[in-house]
Design a protein that fits this description.
Elements lengths: L7 E6 L2 E3 L7 E9 L5 E9 L4 E9 L5 E10 L5 E13 L4 E8 L6 E6 L4 E4 L8 E10 L4 E7 L4 E7 L5 E7 L6 E3 L4 E3 L2 E7 L5 H15 L4 H5 L3 E3 L1 H4 L6 H14 L3 E4 L32 H10 L3 E6 L9 H5 L4 E4 L2 E6 L4 H18 L3 E4 L21 H19 L4 E4 L17 E3 L6 H11 L8 E4 L22 H12 L2 E4 L8 H24 L1 E4 L4 E2 L3 E2 L2 E7 L5 E8 L7 E3 L9 E5 L7 E3 H5 L3 E3 L6 E10 L2
Helix pairs in contact: 7-8, 10-11
């Protein structure tokens, strides 16, 4: 099974376009090697002697999958500087026929909003906000008339672009990679530049599962960093939504930790509010960067005391940090004015990781936090839009490649931290889910999907995120009790109308990936704490291994915010050997009273036993489950089912 297209590339330098068929190009040879991950790379070198350029086209075809990855290395082999202002990591001509276009728009609390249309005119998908998932998700799928799929994912955390250009003969030419707006890099003689990567996948039957399952398998094997903690998928508690920075302190944190230990939770994470000056009301946002200061009015015993008590209770300690950010009142900005990213003389609110001094400072800071505070988990947030990024020229980069060098530098720092602390889990976050991409997921262990977590939104985001991410790479908490105001965040644990089935519905949504809570644990009613402990046990003894190892199939359409989309939602986890499966089913408000859910990836002549299925019958043939399916008709709105399916010999 091979990827059915042969993408070209395009580099625009000194006013010319260079590709594999450019006049005067020479084939300088082909070589093969394996990356450290074991992925096989084929490199073909193209020479443009008159212009003094060589371009390596690197390509990985993942064995057994219709998935490929491509990127470029550009070298200046001439005697004069070479100015590059656009790099298309791939170009491909599409067969002349009707195509449908799928993509996701994205914003804070509105991630993975789908759009679908017939491809008729030129279409540009892009982000120019400086974070990969702000505006649009770095993901696009085209569907042919015969159901064939062509999926493209830029492997990048900054600005990217995907173009579908309609040509004179009404055919389309796709291209993309790094966004060319405000981009320019000048290579001195002998210098080289590596482009961003692009992953492309082909599928069939107009079924996104035929693309997402291979991407998840490849991600687990080749892309995602792993350590013992990330592989264990620990259940997390984080203080943020119930307390934010205003109501968190040492006593509150430790009281919650006591309850977390009783409930079987494995990680307690201290989010924003722990650092800065010794003022109870000091706003965390203004002091980002002063990670050497602890707010002693909130945490008089220091952070290490919290960590030690967490460890004594048999749990692990997590800490939030926005290492890229520079608050307006942070001392760091005065101590190191050259650290600040700026555009046209105006500070942008973050540190330029294109500056090697910033990278060294960032590594030393994270290294110190981990060592001094005994951190097992670091949550790395980023709460602003860099747009086109820094254009200072005294940072080790040029005026046109500041954002590009920033993300290269940020990736480098994450890798250094993982090398120095191989047992520590790194969580990616950016205002929730505004920097989720296949680039950052080669450097962080897990990514946070979105800040809000009301059920309908949470299901919509998970459905969308798993079109290119494996579920074990995702983290999103159960329905949280918010201190702040949000029209949809209405969970109140003391609501007399809240019942067990409804609470189970909320909690099971979070169990389908990395599992966590942001609640006032001591303030919960006893029955809710009992249900949390129950669900934590189920997750650790059953669900966890499916999230970590199984293939995920979306069996229903995407549920959408505002009462739209499919109002029944079903996800099937299928172990690679096909002998064991796990089915999650959710009935949202506004759903029809009855729904048949058809399973997949079963043996038609196999016998299957279902545990947890409402009703009397427990055994089915595979042909029944994949044909008519399972009938659900006695579930109320906001109820759910969790069904364990095993193949039997009978």
């Amino acid at each position: 099974m091979k990827f059915p297209y042969d993408p070209d590339f395009a580099v625009f330098a000194d006013g010319r376009r260079f590709g594999s068929a450019t006049a005067g190009v020479s084939d300088l040879g082909r070589r093969e090697k394996r990356e450290e991950t074991g992925a096989p790379v084929i490199t073909v070198t193209f020479g443009y002697e008159r212009e003094g350029i060589e371009i390596d086209r690197h390509r990985i075809d993942y064995d057994g999958f219709s998935v490929m990855e491509q990127w470029l290395t550009i070298r200046n082999t001439g005697h004069e500087p070479l100015s590059i202002d656009r790099i298309d990591s791939f170009c491909v001509s599409l067969p002349r026929e009707e195509w449908r276009l799928l993509f996701f728009r994205s914003d804070w609390g509105a991630e993975f909003e789908p759009e679908e249309s017939v491809l008729q005119d030129t279409v540009i998908l892009e982000t120019l906000h400086g974070r990969s998932s702000k505006g649009m998700q770095p993901w696009m799928t085209l569907i042919r008339g015969n159901g064939g799929l062509l999926n493209v994912c830029p492997v990048w955390s900054g600005n990217w672009i995907l173009r579908c250009m309609r040509e004179e003969d009404d055919a389309y030419r796709m291209s993309g990679g790094l966004h060319d707006r405000d981009f320019q890099v000048v290579l001195a003689p002998g210098e080289a530049l590596e482009s961003i990567r692009v992953v492309m996948a082909a599928g069939s039957d107009a079924d996104l599962n035929t693309v997402s399952v291979p991407l998840a398998r490849i991600g687990r094997k080749f892309w995602y960093p792993r350590n013992a903690l990330s592989q264990s998928l620990p259940v997390e508690w984080n203080h943020w939504w119930t307390y934010e920075d205003r109501r968190i302190n040492e006593t509150v944190f430790l009281e919650n930790a006591e309850q977390a230990a009783n409930l079987g939770i494995e990680v307690c994470t201290l989010d924003a509010g722990w650092f800065g000056p010794d003022e109870a009301e000091a706003p965390w946002y203004d002091y980002r960067g002063d990670w050497d200061l602890v707010n002693r009015s909130r945490f008089p015993g220091g952070i290490r005391r919290l960590s030690d008590e967490i460890h004594e209770k048999g749990m692990m300690f997590g800490l939030w940090c926005e290492i890229e950010a520079l608050g307006e009142r942070a001392r760091l900005g005065q101590q190191f004015p050259d650290f600040a990213a700026a555009r046209d003389g105006e500070r942008l609110g973050y540190l330029c990781f294109g500056n090697p001094e910033v990278r060294d400072w960032a590594f030393r800071t994270l290294d110190r936090l981990i060592r001094e505070y005994g951190c097992d988990w670091i949550k790395l947030d980023f709460n602003l839009d860099p747009a086109s990024g820094c254009n200072r020229t005294d940072h080790g980069h040029g005026a046109g490649d500041g954002l590009f060098r920033h993300y290269q530098g940020y990736y480098e720092v994450l890798d250094r931290v993982r090398e120095a602390h191989p047992d520590v889990l790194l969580e990616n976050c950016a205002s929730g889910g505004l920097r989720n991409d296949l680039g950052i997921m080669r450097h962080a262990h897990v990514t946070f999907l979105s800040d809000p977590d009301w059920p309908e939104h949470s299901l919509q985001v998970f459905w969308g995120a798993t079109t290119f991410l494996a579920p074990n790479a995702c983290l999103h908490w159960s329905y949280s009790d918010w201190l702040g105001q949000h029209p949809e965040q209405r969970f109140k644990p003391d609501d007399p109308g809240l019942g067990q089935a409804q609470f189970d519905f909320y909690t099971r949504i979070s169990m389908m990936r990395g599992f966590g809570f942001s609640q006032n644990l001591p303030g919960l009613p006893d029955w809710i704490r009992e249900r949390i402990a129950f669900h934590v046990r189920v997750y650790r003894t059953l669900v966890n291994r499916f999230v970590k190892d199984a293939d995920l199939y979306r069996l229903t359409g995407q549920p959408l915010r505002g009462g739209k989309g499919d109002r029944w939602t079903a996800f099937q986890y299928s172990m690679p050997d096909g002998a064991e499966h796990l089915l999650f089913v959710f009935r949202l408000s506004g759903a029809d009273p009855r729904r048949y859910v058809r399973l997949t990836n079963l043996a038609a002549d196999g016998n299957y036993e279902l545990a947890g299925l409402p009703g009397a019958r427990r055994r089915f043939r595979g042909s029944e489950l994949m044909g008519l399916g399972i009938r659900f008709e006695h579930m109320a709105e906001e109820e759910s089912a969790l069904i364990h399916i095993r193949r039997t010999e009978e």
